[in-house]
Write the structure tokens for this entry.
Amino acid sequence: MAEILARHAPSQDALLPILHDVQARFGHVSIEAIHAIALHLNLSRAEVSGVVSFYRDFRRTADKRPTIRLCRAEACQARGGERVAEHAERAAGQRVRVEAVYCLGLCAAGPNAMIGDQLHARLDPARITALIDGL
């Protein structure tokens, strides 16, 4: 944690970069990290905690399961996204976490999902099931 904080000057502009670094390093932003960040940036713990809870990318607890981010925006819904989501939830069970996101930026090629940093477009129930089975 000290190494991450040392890389960022203590200004409020550093809050999101620090939170991203903490999330990437530890897989979550713990209450201890929130306290350390608040001290470093001269913010209240409530201010830091509020940002952590506002953005879906930050987690308060560790979760080792693989994650698939499934677009639930209107364009993907119009192209069969709800059906893909049903199959994704069924294939994922408790082994894979399925997160809803609202636009991955590939609206013309929906339904879409993101696994890690890789986008997957034009999904159908068979493709989403195969992707999840491969995780």
